[in-house]
Structure formats: structure tokens, C-alpha cells
Amino acid sequence: MFNKVLIANRGEIALRIIRACKELKVKTVAVYSDVDRESLHVAMADEAVCIGPAASKDSYLNIRSIISAAEIADVDAIHPGYGFMAENAEFASICEDCGFKFIGPSAKHIDMMGNKSSAKEAMKNFGVPVVPGSEGAVKDAQDALRIAKDMGFPVMIKASAGGGGKGMRVAHNEMSFLNAFEMARSEAMNAFNSEEIYIEKFIENPRHIEVQVFGDGKGNGLHFYERECSIQRRHQKLLEESPSTAISDATRKKMGEVSVAAVEALQYENAGTIEYLVYKNENFYFMEMNTRIQVEHPVTEMVTNTDLLQLQLRVAAGEPFPMKQKDIKLQGHAIECRVNAEDPVTFMPCPGLIKGYVTPGGFGTRVDSACYDGYYVLPFYDSMIAKLIVFGRNREMAIARMQRALDEFVVDGIKTTIPLHERILEHHAFQEGDITTEFIERYFG
Questions:
Q1: Considering 169, 292, 314, 366, which one is annotated as catalytic?
Q2: Which fold has domain 207-444?
Q3: pLDDT band for position 164 (50/70/90)?
């Protein structure tokens, strides 16, 4: 096991990594921007190094500063968390070149899966079902239009380097296609510095279901079942749960098996998530692979009784898997609500001073957060301030427990999305499990 790990992140995920390290007797080094001096991850780490000013590009995205901090602190490894540098192949490669173990997959796999069209082709070759679409990136707008007409509208226009809903447009007919194509390409260039675009058949009203996987880098893989992530707004997830109510045990088994087969064929190392669109008759299609730990990993931890962050550390340190697939059991039901510092109606960010902060407690209730009474929510970073996770023996109990926990959660001084989550959980369609990726637009749009 490592002696000392640097955490190249901030907020609740940095705290989550610190806690996992401490239980394994691993020392931790926090990095922080100059406006994050009062953050909990700085206080809880064994050491802390300032890496620059508030802007992410000058601090948490500054590779030179992070590597310098790692050298100063004399660490063995670097954990990127999620966001920031987590899926940056260049950063992963530089970490390894400088003698620091990158706690995640290889730069090769980050690069392969980061390009959505190459990821799709790779998964297709491994026998994973994929959404019908173009063979890789299209040449130009006319080539894209020809492909779209051949497969039939509606179609999804997607940036090859995309993520988080950026560079994505739906075209329902030939008239709207070219305009949507140019908009997607422009957004892709601005967001990812790449104009590569590919085309997929648009799957209407699907479920968004993902499978948590791990690889040991030696051709062995595991899955930790699925998460239901259909409750989202503009492709940004709001609420996640496990297991999904949309799939049978037979489909669950098949999704797990094809996901593990892909991980093993890739000789993938560490945590990853394979995301699927699930359509009628439980047909499922590969959408993308996230080469990192996910925001919603706690719901999987709850239903499988597994610390996924500790597993990341063990795999990165070269230890064999401490369990076999047959040992991973799916028990009960877990739900996670992302609490954002946003107006619950307009979704406008609401940074500011927290004047009162009381988190819920009780059996089966967990809060992952870096906030406290008197904390100032900064305008420079992601607006998520907490994750509220509950566990119950079944979905009905988990819903009831989440409703009780949300009612207890107090955040004064700023607006949050807690009222939105309360409305979602009260809605009859959610309670009946009748949800798709269009849920928010249909009922709260």
C-alpha cells in the first residue's frame, strides 16, 4: 500500500478520498486554490499545498502546479477524484512519467474512452450492444446528413470528445439537421477544442442505466451492478438509485457480463462506469464509458457493502481483488440526491454564505459534503454542495427515508435544490418507477 497520496481535487470527493486513505493508514496531501484555504479537505488532510489562484485553469487544472506539489510533498501516488483532471490522459501520463502512480486507468484507456466515437467502435468489437450510428466521426455536414437520412430521423448529433451534455443536439427532420449540426460542432470546439462529430439514432424516452466496473489491469474484471440515472436535467444527473426498477434479473445479469467482458478484453485497470441507454423490451445500448469514480458511487457502496474508494487504492497499489464476482451481492435499495447551490426552479447558481447548516441523520442515512455552518459557497467551481444518500430494505423504504432526510436537511443563507428533490420524490410517476430521461422536462419543465 502507498505511504502518501496527493488528492488532485477539492470538496466532498477530496474528503471522501482522505477518509478512505486514513482507514488504510495512508497519509494524505491536499491541494487547494487560494480561495479554498478554509475548506474542510485542507483541514482534514495530513498536509496541504496551495497550487494557485481561484480560477480552475490556474489551480486545479494546472498540471505543472499539481506535479510540483506532489514532488514537494514526496508522495507515492495521485488520486484525481472526478471532474478536473480525472479523465485527462495527458495528466495521467505525466503522473506516471514523473514517478507517481495515477490512481485510475491508463492514459491509453482514458484517451480511447474519452473519444466517444472510438469508444463506441471498441465496445462494438467487444460484443457490447451499441446504438446504430456512424462508423466513427463524420467527414462533414453533408456526410452526416447522408448518414442521418439512411438511418432515419430523429437522430442525435454528438461531439466525439463530448461529456456533460455539451456538443449534443437532436434533429427531428432534414430541415433542422444542418443547423443543429453546426451548433453542435461549434459547441464542441469551444468546450473540447475538437470539431469531431458523430451521429447516432436518437432513442426516444430511454432509461439511463450504468454499470459500475473494476479491472485489475491484468485481464480480470468485476461489476458491482447497476445504477438508475434517468432523473436528469439537460443531461446533468440530479438523482440516482440502485438497483433499477426497469430491468429484470436476466437483463441485469447480461449487462453485468458484457460490461465485465469489455473490461477484461481491454485489460482495464481501476474503476470505471459503462453507461447504457435502455429502451423498450429491456434492449440496452452502449452510450459511453467514464474512466473514473463517479459522483454517484455511494449508492453502489450502499447496496453492495463495498468501499469503492478503498478498492481503487488497493488495485492501484497492485493488490489482487479481495473478492470474486460471486461474493458481490445486491441487497436493499439506495437513493442519492445531489444537493446543488442553485435556485430549484430556474437552476441559476446561488453562491454565498451558509448561515445555518444541519445535516440529517438516523439509520441508513449518509451525507457526503464539505460544507459547514459559516462556509462560503464559492462561485468559481461546481455548484454541488452535498450528496444525500439513504439505504432501505426496499425502494418504498428508501423513498420514505429520503423524504424524511430531505425534510431534516437545513441550508440557510443560499438557495438549494432540496425543494426540487422533495417534489420529485412526491411525484406519483417516480414512486411508481415510471421514469425516463425526459422525466424532469415532462413533469417539471
A1: 292
A2: D-amino Acid Aminotransferase; Chain A, domain 1 (3.30.470)
A3: low
